[in-house]
Amino acid sequence: MKLDSRRPDFAVQPKRQNLEGLQQLRASTWVNLLQLPNPFSFDEALLLCPVSADEWLVWIPDHGEAILNIRQFSY
Questions:
Q1: Is it the case that residue 13 has pLDDT exceeding 90?
Q2: How far apart are CA 11 and CA 13, in angstroms?
């Protein structure tokens, strides 16, 4: 599932992205979400495994699994 910021019920929390830290991403690392998949989900996600060079499979508490682009979270 990819997050879609064009949805009217999409919750956005502005945060600065740490591009230096994204170079060192590893599975089992908690990251801060820049966009929430729903208003009731946590604002952190657990990295499970890379899907491509710029996408990760993550687990978000109170939401479940999702595929996120590295631009959608900060480390």
A1: no
A2: 7
How many residues are recorded in the chain? 75
Which tokens sit at 41? 């989900």
Q: How far is the C-alpha of 32 from the C-alpha of 50, rounded, in Å?
A: 17
Residue 3 CB neighbour total at 10 angstroms = 19
Is 71 strand, coil or helix? helix
Whether 60 and 33 have beta carbons less than 8 Å apart is answered as yes
Band (pLDDT 50/70/90 cuts) for residue 24 is confident
The answer for residues whose C-beta is within 8 angstroms of residue 39's C-beta and 6 or more apart is 9, 11
One-character DSSP codes across 7-33:
STT-EE------HHHHTT--TT-EEEE
Copy the structure tokens of residue 47: 């990295």
